[in-house]
Specification:
Helix content is about 35%, strand content about 10%. The protein is of the alpha+beta class and about 230 residues long. The chain is globular, with a radius of gyration of 17 Å.
Length: about 230
């Protein structure tokens, strides 16, 4: 899966958005792309993609908060997989460590714009050190997948920095239907075949904090997640 380092400046935002969404669809539809759930989402059009400015910026957080709230309100418990994809083409971070730092800065600023009257999703923990941690916004938990050109994981090498927000309850729906385990194993086999080795950060929910997986970087022993839950 080749990556074009696209750092253009567009005069027309509509052209920019179409260019980025077309690139994302090609990225996911590549035969080697391992995530079968992602392929299904893109193939069926069950996703929302929005383009912002710089990853970690305050303005990006403000607009993302509005759009993610609308996404959540649009389907509280969808029967099919849906994903929200946020792309940040401006001032891209250099390297995995900087991407990871700005990913968590973006999530922190997004959290600070959440409605304080709505509790954290009770199905998950708000402590990033807890094995049951997941990011929550407007009371709904998400598994966040970071993508960028410098990722060491081939499956995450998208041309621009991006965050995919996958609602957690969708995984539980798959578990209840008896489909989750088979899908997960198929995705891991495909990812291992693409990369040559399985992702060392992979773990099942409840074994280790999924915060270790969001950026895609192989975290060192003793790594501490910089995210902090806002308290009333």
């Amino acid at each position: 899966m080749s990556v074009v380092r696209a750092r253009e400046t567009w005069r027309d935002p509509a052209v920019r958005d179409r260019t980025i969404e077309d690139a994302f669809r090609r990225f996911v539809k590549d035969p080697r792309f391992p995530c079968l759930a992602g392929k299904g989402v893109v193939g069926s059009g069950n996703y929302v993609l929005r383009v912002y400015g710089s990853l970690g910026a305050t303005l990006s957080a403000e607009r993302l908060a509005e759009d993610l709230a609308r996404f959540k309100a649009g389907a509280r418990r969808p029967s099919r997989f849906r994903t929200f994809v946020a792309v940040f083409p401006d001032d891209p971070p250099a390297g995995e460590a900087e991407f990871e730092r700005r990913l968590w800065l973006q999530l922190q600023r997004l959290h600070e714009r959440d409605d304080p009257s709505i509790p954290w999703d009770p199905a998950v923990s708000d402590d990033p050190d807890n094995p049951r941690f997941a990011f929550s916004f407007r009371g709904r938990a998400y598994f966040v997948v970071g993508m960028h050109p410098d990722s060491s994981r081939i499956a995450r090498r998208f041309s621009w920095p991006a965050l995919a927000f996958n609602p957690h309850d969708q995984f539980e729906t798959l578990r209840a239907a008896g489909h989750f385990e088979r899908l997960r194993q198929a995705i891991r086999r495909r990812d291992s075949a693409l990369q040559g080795a399985i992702n060392p950060n992979l773990s099942d929910f409840g074994e280790r904090s999924e915060a270790l997986q969001y950026s895609g970087r192989r975290t060192e022993s003793g790594w501490k997640c910089p995210f902090h839950r806002r308290r009333a």
